[in-house]
Write a structure and sequence with these properties.
By secondary structure, the chain is α/β, with parallel strands linked by helices. It contains 20 helices and 11 strands. Helix 10 links the parallel strand 8 and strand 9.
């Protein structure tokens, strides 16, 4: 079966695609997107080596239902046989299996997968070819681009020759991530489409529905996939921007029907309420500390109540200043895309006047005691300038002679390890640490006496 025939017959000529997202494109989110006109969904990226060895991992991460079709399961891998085994396991539950060749994160560097395989063309060829010939299920690939359009085209042609039925192209290079993300290159995607004979999905720069139409027209690809735009507005494919609480409530109902880890749901809520939390900061903390779906539902209700009140008070032209340093483009109660600062804007903010931007990783940022902050704390400080990393609010403890905190109410005034040594030597009890040397010693004394005299004691 050719790639175009597969796309037409098995994927129903899918045009609007939800991209694979780690811990974010799980079943309830996919079902939400399908309700709002997504033609095709990918699972989150699964680790092939862990997947074939850990049945618990399989059950937790490979969750599907009959309505969740058409579906493509994505794996990361660097071993052809491992990838083949994973493909065979999921084959009955999906239309195709995708190999992740686009992840640019450091974890992919350490794990030797994703975009960090871009220079290893022989390995990539084997990964795709072995499974496409032996797995009895179509194999697709999602790649990133090189700086050179010509090299990107050659790369895509190699992936096609290896047996990929569809090529998804993220129009950014390996280096375009974090503050250097920038815009994706549709020119690279267009060139690939003109030189391969399989369907191509474009990925990058999709924030509004109009972007989809422009991308399809400019690049000539068969489909457009979106990740971040979809996370902030799951109704993107319907060309509308609903209330944020409308999407949140609908998603939480689906989570009750198709349970998933609470952390994943929390992540979706933070994405949907991203701008709302810049206005109503106290609700961010309520979501962060929520311990159940009911807590999330309560937060959504509070966002709704405050949003409707602000709507009545200010009207649809309501704008507010964000902690990132720029105004809202639209009222916070509407689903809307998140716009990253361009690399030039990020550098300019570091150099000129934006004190928060100067606290980005690499700059000298300290807490109130002059101690240098970690990279993670500097990132938090950039997002939440009011954050206090000082020690003033933390509880203080007296230290044992070994340097560890003393245990409260310990009879020796020590930590557990030191208490155990002291109680043993002194044959004493410490109920705080549940050490009963004295009690046990008194119980054992009669038996020891009887044994010493050679007299059997009746019991």
């Amino acid at each position: 079966m050719s790639g175009h025939e597969f796309w037409r017959t098995k994927l129903n000529s899918a045009r609007l695609v939800v991209a694979p997202m780690v811990d974010m494109s799980e079943l309830p989110w996919r079902m939400l997107c399908r309700r709002h006109k997504a033609d095709l969904c990918y699972t989150p990226m699964l680790h092939s080596q862990v997947f074939i060895k850990d049945t618990t991992y399989q059950k937790d991460h490979m969750v599907v239902c009959e309505e969740d079709r058409p579906l493509i399961v994505q794996f990361c891998a660097d071993d052809p046989d491992t990838f083949l085994t994973a493909c065979k396991i999921v084959a009955p539950h999906c239309e195709a299996v995708d190999i992740n060749l686009g992840c640019p994160q450091n974890i992919a560097r350490r794990g030797h997968y994703g975009a960090f395989l871009m220079e290893e063309w022989d390995l990539i060829y084997k990964l795709i070819n072995v499974s496409s010939l032996n797995a009895n299920i179509p194999v697709t690939a999602k790649i990133r681009v090189f700086e050179s359009i010509e090299r990107t085209v050659e790369y895509a042609k190699m992936v096609e020759q290896a047996g990929a039925k569809i090529i998804g192209i993220h129009g950014r290079t390996l280096e375009q991530k974090g503050p250097n993300t920038g815009l994706a290159s549709w020119d690279h995607i267009k060139a690939v489409k003109q030189h391969v004979n399989v369907p191509v999905f474009a990925n990058g720069n999709i924030q509004y529905y109009d972007d989809i139409e422009r991308c399809l027209k400019y690049t000539g690809v068969e489909g457009v996939m979106t990740a971040e735009g979809n996370l902030h507005n799951p109704a993107l494919f319907e060309a509308r921007q609903p209330f944020v609480w409308e999407m949140a409530d609908e998603y939480l109902e689906l989570v009750q029907q198709y349970p998933c880890p609470l952390a994943w749901s929390r992540g979706h809520m933070f994405k949907l309420f991203h701008y709302a939390f810049h206005v109503h900061i106290d609700l961010r903390e309520k979501l962060a500390t929520g311990k159940s779906l009911n807590d999330f539902v309560a937060v959504s209700q509070m966002v709704k109540e405050r949003g409707l009140e602000d709507m009545r008070k200010y009207g649809d032209d309501y704008l507010t200043e964000l902690s990132e340093g720029g105004p809202l483009r639209q009222p916070y109660w509407l689903c809307q895309p998140y716009f990253r600062p361009t690399p030039d804007e990020a550098r300019e903010r570091q150099l000129n006047g934006d004190e928060r931007a100067k606290k980005r990783p690499g700059e000298a940022a300290s807490d109130e005691n002059g101690k240098k902050l970690s990279i993670n704390k500097m990132k938090k400080l950039l997002r939440y300038p009011q954050k206090n990393f000082g020690q003033s609010n933390r509880a203080t403890y007296e230290l044992c002679e070994c340097g560890q905190p003393k245990s409260k109410n310990c009879v020796f005034g020590s930590c557990r390890n030191c208490c155990k040594v002291k109680a043993f030597k002194a044959v004493e009890d410490c109920t705080t640490h549940r050490l009963l040397f004295k009690t046990k010693s008194s119980k054992e004394a009669p038996a020891e006496t009887a044994d010493a005299t050679g007299v059997e004691v009746a019991t």
